[in-house]
Design brief:
1236 residues; mainly alpha; 48 helices; ARM-type_fold
Length: 1236
């Protein structure tokens, strides 16, 4: 029987066999001759038993008593026996891996036969040492100490200097150790499977040890024991499978012998077969008992462990069990664990789930058993194709492909469409996996007879003819993308035969369709030509398109041969086909003149921006050097620009001469011509027409007279901006002279001055345009202009002075951080008004992002960000992602200056509050609470690595203390300083100080305190008292431990801020009490600027409502942060904000919330009913308190019952699995919808 307490070790020197016992579950056979205990209980199946002196099996009552007694105790741990003996331990042998594992196990078995107590002690210490513990478990400890004392002793002897242990240590030796460790356990069970594992001693000891260690708060114990237990379970599953095979064989032999006629029937053989069958049945019952103990005692708790690696181990191994012994484990009662874990926060766990399922779906014979699981979790699997972890997304697509191969009806059209568009993903593995899915769904031929009939045909009538048509249609119907090169690259590995059928593609373009065949439209022909060109380039260059790879990789010999063959094939085919294709295209050139004439008419008649930009883009494409028609189009374009430029110059002269007397016709002539020229200047270099001069005249006149129409001013600003950029392009592409540089500098300087003056314009569109152009030009003409060997462009570098910086900041404060309710008063349900609100928000986000870029790249001084950071909480829904990213980037630039900026933003809010409420602040007011909450959010951004942020946090406290004592109370020294209440805000950052710095900060605080201050206890002095306490008593909260957080059955660890972890990592004492930050110069030099941000994004992940606030305690970049902050899923500089989408729960799963304060207990009655999905929180799901009730839990927990063999009668079916939902700690998100 398996108990959670290790069996009492016997004294091998006691010849009489008498033992001192403390075990209540010991039966009388343990008092017999110890020589009998080393003998095998049962013989190998199929052979005569070696002895008839078998130990009687324990009764059900004895087992239940032992189980009940064992579950109430903590669990013991052990280590290598240090009392002499062989100096080479099992741990060292396995770690070195020089000996064959079979011989190592055989030696241990021989030692077990000689003295099983010492052999087991060696095995126990092996597990302890594999956990990285330096402690030693001795025989005396087993005799005189309870398991709770033993595990406490081993925990105390843990090496706290490092959080590493063998399973997590880097290097090839430790990677090999992990493999050897798992192999040792597997070989041990394999060698002991015929006798020793049934002696009710060895396996009881090992399983109870691993169960105890797996519930330890020490991560190393928990991780190592869980891996050992899962590998032990896998070995036992293999033993159970072998037993089932033996039972079936024995049953067949028995039936064959019994069916013989009476004269030939051997009764002795029948008796032996019956005896063997009975023995095999007993053995199988024993194996079931062991597996139940491991599954219920370890797996059901550790598959939801706080550590992702532990959860991944559990899921990986349950996948092995289901594949190895599908008759017993491949059912809904076990599959649901994998299904639930598909929602895990960590990508590595989700990855293990998908790979485990792939191994099952690969075997088509298992599909009937997976049908219910597929229906239940299909939507979740499909949604994981958009997982934020690309490795997970790839495996999810592969799993969906396997589901498609097994049953095409399993996936709906909507499911397939969710995967289709991923062929355009910038991440190549995702795109290739999606291409394989697309190939299986659309391009696989399922009719062998039709394929054989078409195989003899070539060209358009070949089997690929219709498939190429289908590919063209798919390409045209892809509304989100128009990148043929990406589509071809995605399908290249799975559909090369189709994509290299250039003969078929050519015939589709050249030949007339046969009767009954549809003619390709011009749009389809263009798409086919584009696809054909992309396939040719892919075959000839043999590398992915731009954006799909990190660079050209070295081709293998096989790939080089394939490339040469493809080039030869291309040459042979297109040397004949290309002239015919070109002749077909030349027939269309006669229409060029008509096209250019129509475009000119459109430009002259319309002034809509979209229409003009489309015409401009058309001219730009037709003027490309790759076309022979370039010169003809260029002449037509130049003639059009000449006419518009002359018209614009005359209109400007007339407008400026008439001044305020100008009529609407004059204004319209200038505006219409300027809009056309601006649209063309965007895509064409028009610097030789010198449009900047007239635009500048218009802007200066508008500033001086104040009567320029806003539309003309906006267009003039934009056109001038384009002119400057084209001049910069010319200079950077060539070798500019000094005069050219000075001329451009004068132009830029004058334009910046005009933009700065426009910031005070009465028209909002003019101010916004000037602001955006100022930010863009300051970015372009910053110090980054001279990087990369362009030091000669130094004269073009502009740095904004403090006046311009203040004007830009004030503009942001006045036009970005405004209340939308005051701006928009309208009825609900007005779609047009809602669209206007969204558009206005997009515009404000762009304004804020433009200014934040200047801060990030050190163009505007970082302290200016304080006015931005202080709005983080109030405007979180609108700008939270931008402000958070700005904070992150500025911290990368200069941690200390960023910390100073954070505390400055809090000081500004505090000063504003003092101005509103006066010196007597109500510390319970919502305003004070808001500042404290903002401080708490700021503190969380420092992360968990306190060493990296040590100096920054200390500097923050230094500035906060100085601010709190900056102004004395005018009523006298017996009254608190005016800013003393700020210490209550500052205390939110105390948890980010390490112990040594808390002492240093406290010493610095005492320099500002008088003797009377430390004795005051009035309410007005409470901020000082609470801040001092946070520095004096919070030292044990450092997150520097090899242990994970404690757990609870009633609530999340996040609500237990005051609960310190059990073990702390020691940090070396600093030589100086006063930290270096005390004397650090406040004038800090920021490092060099960051790289220019990449403003592109790949496929957007699924969105969540913006109202959800992120989990403040989650790790940076965690899935919870990803789920609750949809703006993190897109580039934070994107021009538009993602709409708030409420995703429908397509899966129909009802996630049951388990509120800790309600004490609700909800049972989970199988996969078909409303399952309470486990919540994967960053806490341990089982604790010592739960272990005390484990005996009661197991009454409601599923029992592993192996399927009946042919010789066994109907057995009890698998009972449903019940969980105590009160033991589940709810995620703050409540799992109210799928996580992705």
């Amino acid at each position: 029987m398996i108990t959670s307490e290790l069996p009492v070790l016997q004294d091998s020197s006691n010849e009489s066999g008498a033992t001192d016992t403390v075990s209540l579950s010991m039966n009388m056979t343990e008092m017999e001759d110890p020589e009998m205990k080393g003998k095998k209980k049962r013989g190998r199946p199929g052979k005569q038993t070696q002895t008839s002196n078998k130990k009687p099996r324990k009764s059900t009552t004895d087992k239940a008593l032992s189980m009940a007694r064992g579950r109430g105790k903590a669990n013991g741990v052990a280590q290598q026996n240090g009392n002499g003996g062989d100096p080479v331990t099992l741990f060292e042998v396995v770690k070195l891996g020089k000996s064959a594992m079979q011989s190592v196990v055989d030696e241990w078995i021989e030692a077990y036969k000689q003295d099983r107590d010492l052999a087991l002690l060696d095995l126990i210490n092996f597990f302890i040492q594999c956990s990285g513990c330096k402690g030693t478990v001795r025989i005396e400890m087993f005799r005189n100490m309870q398991n709770a004392e033993i595990i406490r002793k081993m925990t105390e002897e843990f090496d706290e200097d490092s959080g590493d242990y063998p399973l997590t240590m880097p290097g090839p030796m430790w990677k090999k150790f992990r493999y050897n460790f798992c192999e040792f356990i597997g070989v041990l069970i394999r060698q002991c499977q015929y006798s020793i594992i049934y002696d009710e001693y060895m396996m009881d000891t090992v399983i109870s040890l691993l169960t105890g260690l797996s519930d330890s708060q020490v991560r190393a114990f928990r991780h190592t024991s869980t891996l050992a237990a899962m590998k032990l379970m896998t070995a036992l599953v293999n033993v159970a499978l072998n037993l089932s095979i033996h039972q079936d064989n024995t049953q067949r032999q028995y039936e064959a012998e019994r069916n013989k006629i009476a004269g030939k029937r051997a009764n002795e053989k029948l008796e032996l077969l019956l005896q063997k069958r009975k023995e095999l049945q007993e053995n199988q019952d024993e194996i079931e008992n062991m597996m139940n103990s491991i599954f219920k005692g370890i797996f059901v708790h550790r598959y939801r462990d706080a550590i992702a690696e532990i959860r991944a181990i559990c899921i990986e191994e349950i996948g092995v069990w289901m594949k190895m012994y599908s008759d017993a484990f491949l059912n809904d009662s076990y599959l649901k664990y994998v299904g639930w874990t598909l929602h895990d926060r960590q990508g590595e766990v989700r990855l293990k789930c998908l790979k485990a399922l792939q191994n099952l779906y690969t075997n088509r014979e298992l599909f009937p058993k997976l049908e219910l699981f597929t229906n239940r979790f299909k939507d979740r699997i499909v949604s994981m194709t958009l997982d934020k972890e690309y490795d997970v997304a790839v495996e999810a697509i592969r799993l969906v492909t396997l589901i498609l191969q097994g049953s095409e009806d399993a996936l709906s059209n909507e499911d397939c469409e969710n995967v289709y568009h991923l062929v355009y993903s910038a991440h190549r593995p995702v795109a290739v996996a999606a291409g394989e899915f697309l190939h299986r769904k659309l391009f696989s031929r399922h009719d062998p007879q039709a394929e054989e009939a078409l195989a003899k045909r070539r060209g358009r009538s070949s089997p690929n003819g219709n498939l190429i048509r289908m590919l063209v249609l798919f390409f045209l119907e892809s509304e989100l993308h128009e990148h043929a090169a990406y589509l071809v690259d995605s399908l290249w590995e799975s559909s090369q035969e189709l994509l290299k059928d250039w003969e078929c593609m050519t015939e589709l373009l050249l030949e007339e369709p046969v009767q009954g065949e549809e003619l390709l439209s011009e749009r389809q022909e263009s798409a086919l030509i584009e696809l054909t060109v992309c396939t040719i380039r892919q075959a000839a260059e043999a590398h992915p398109p731009v954006g799909r790879g990190t660079g050209k990789r070295v081709l293998t010999a096989k790939e080089r041969k394939t490339q040469i063959d493809d080039k030869n094939k291309l040459t042979e085919h297109f040397i004949m086909a290309l002239p015919m294709l070109l002749s077909k295209c030349w027939a269309h050139e006669k229409h060029l003149d008509a096209l250019l004439k129509q475009i000119r008419l459109v430009v002259e008649k319309h002034i809509e921006t979209d229409v003009l930009e489309a015409c401009s883009k058309t001219y730009s494409i037709l003027c490309s050097e790759e076309y022979t028609i370039m010169n003809r189009v260029d002449i037509a374009r130049s003639q059009l620009i000449d006419e518009m430029t002359d018209r614009f110059a005359h209109s400007v002269e007339e407008l400026l001469q008439e001044g305020e007397e100008a009529d609407d016709d004059d204004i319209y002539n200038v505006l219409s011509t300027l809009k056309r020229l601006t649209a063309f200047h965007n895509a064409h270099d028009l610097t030789r027409w010198d449009l900047f001069g007239n635009c500048y005249r218009l802007l200066k006149a508008g500033i001086e007279q104040g009567s320029m129409p806003e539309q003309i001013a906006v267009q003039a600003l934009q056109c001038s901006h384009y002119s400057i950029l084209w001049q910069l392009v010319k200079i950077t592409e060539g070798v500019p002279s000094k005069d050219d540089l000075l001329a451009l500098r004068r132009v830029v300087k004058s334009f910046l001055a005009v933009c700065q003056q426009c910031l005070s314009n009465v028209n909002t569109p003019v101010k916004e345009q000037a602001f955006m152009l100022l930010c863009d030009l300051l970015m372009i003409f910053s110090y980054q202009l001279i990087t990369g060997g362009r030091e000669g462009l130094q004269p073009l570098v502009f740095n904004p002075d403090s006046t311009l910086q203040n004007e830009l900041l004030n503009f942001v404060l006045d036009h970005v951080f405004i209340d939308q309710d005051d701006e928009n008063q309208s009825m609900e349900g007005d779609e047009e008004d809602e669209a206007n609100k969204i558009e206005a928000l997009h515009k404000r986000r762009n304004l804020l992002a433009a200014f934040c870029k200047l801060i990030i790249y050190d163009i505007v001084d970082m302290p200016a960000a304080a006015d931005i950071f202080k709005h983080y909480m109030k405007y979180y829904n609108d700008y939270g992602d931008i402000i958070k990213e700005t904070l992150s980037k500025t911290r990368q630039t200069d941690k200390i200056l960023c910390a100073k900026t954070l505390i400055l933003s809090l000081q500004q809010l505090f000063n504003e509050l003092l101005q509103d409420q006066g010196p007597n602040l109500d510390r319970t007011s919502s305003h004070v609470s808001g500042i404290k909450e903002l401080a708490r959010r700021f503190a969380l951004t420092f992360g968990l690595d306190q060493i990296k942020t040590r100096e920054a946090v200390a500097t923050l406290h230094k500035d906060g203390i100085e601010f709190a004592f900056k102004y004395q109370n005018p009523r006298g020294s017996e009254f608190p300083p005016i800013n003393l209440a700020f210490l209550e805000v500052l205390s939110e950052f105390s948890s980010k100080l390490i112990r040594q710095d808390k002492k240093t900060v406290h010493s610095y605080l005492e320099k500002f305190m008088s003797e009377s201050m430390s004795e005051r206890r009035e309410d007005v002095w409470l901020p000082l008292i609470s801040y001092r306490n946070s520095l004096l008593t919070g030292g044990d909260e450092d997150h520097m431990s090899v242990t994970s957080g404690s757990s609870s059955k009633t609530g999340s660890v996040r609500s237990k801020k005051g609960r310190p972890p059990l073990h702390k990592k020691r940090i070396e004492e600093e030589s100086s009490v006063e930290g270096s930050w005390m004397i650090r110069n406040d004038t800090l030099q920021t490092p060099s600027a960051l790289q220019t941000p990449q403003l592109t994004s790949t496929v957007l992940r699924e969105n969540r409502p913006a109202e959800h606030m992120p989990d403040p305690d989650s790790e940076p970049g965690s899935e919870n942060d990803y789920v609750h902050n949809p703006q993190m899923q897109m580039s934070w500089l994107a021009p538009q904000k993602m709409e708030e989408v409420n995703r429908k729960d397509r899966t129909g799963m009802n996630y049951i919330k388990s509120r800790s304060n309600q004490g609700v207990r909800q049972t989970v009655r199988g996969l078909m009913e409303d399952d309470a999905e486990p919540i994967f929180e960053d806490v341990m799901m089982s604790s010592r308190g739960q272990l005390e009730d484990m005996n009661e839990e197991f009454e409601d927990t599923m029992v592993i019952d192996l399927p009946p063999s042919r010789n066994r009668r109907e057995r009890a079916e698998l009972r449903p699995d019940f969980f105590d939902s009160a033991a589940m700690i709810e995620d703050e998100s409540g799992f109210s919808m799928p996580m992705f």
